[in-house]
Amino acid sequence: MTKEDKSFQSSIPLDHEYKALPIPYKWEMSDKEMISKSEEFYELMKKRHTVREYSSRPVPREVIENCIRAAGLAPSGANHQPWHFAIIENPDHKQKIRDAAEEEEKTFYAGRASDEWLGALEPIGTNDQKPHLTEAPWLIVIFAQRTSIDRNGRKFKNYYVNESVGIATGFLITALHKAGLSTLTHTPNPMKFLNELCGRPSTEKPEMILVVGHPAEDATVPAHAKWKKPLEEIMTVF
Questions:
Q1: Looking at residue 219, which CATH number applies to its domain?
Q2: Is there a contact between 172 and 75 (Cβ–Cβ < 8 Å)?
């Protein structure tokens, strides 16, 4: 963490009082530059794929920390930043998470999921085996905080928690992709076992396990995943 980052964090006031500040950064781009930048970003994100097969190539912890630092810049309800990211590299710890996740997945595929749900998953090709949880170099467990504690030990409620954590997760996935890594959003159901395995309080809700690493040489993606809705189906202009 740079000196500037530490200064930024320590400058967050304990008791919030409205104070207007000039915008720290302003983009000065022409329309042509904006169109070009938006096209560049679209082309970058077109290369993002959810991957289930990972190589053993390690990923420096600094990369993960930088990406989580970027996720922490996401907008949130009342700027409460109601998220926590537990990062796991230890093989034994990853194995415990895999064992618990596969136990939940077995009951899911054996009857807890409806036929319609299982039918929707069929083109994706998933089952109750989750080797990526131990193959990938990093797991990031994302927690949503319903309440938080301030520096004086006072408990306070967070707002728009799901929306805030969803935006931060989008930032994180994008940052990891920009860093040249592949990801998988894994959501075993239920996920309460993650609180215990990650030492997080019961007031926090595990949202997902984000699997992070480099794809294996023979990694594949389901053909179904390449289909995306066209612009006219996801946008309305008034």
A1: 3.40.109.10
A2: no
Residues in CB range of 57: below 8 A, 6 or more apart: 137, 213, 214
8 Å CB contact between 201 and 195: yes
Element (H, E) at 88: strand 83-88
Which structural domain, as residue segments, surrounds residue 143?
48-234
State the total domains in the chain. 1
Residue 146, token pair as written in the block: 């319903």
Residue 37, number of CB atoms within 10 A of its CB: 12
Tell whether 105 is covered by a domain.
yes
153-164 per-position pLDDT tens digit: 889 999 999 999
In this prediction the pTM is 0.91
Q: How many CA atoms are closer than 13 Å to the CA of 154, on its beta-carbon side?
A: 5
Tokens 């993606």 — which residue?
A: 221
Please, what is the average pLDDT of the chain? 92
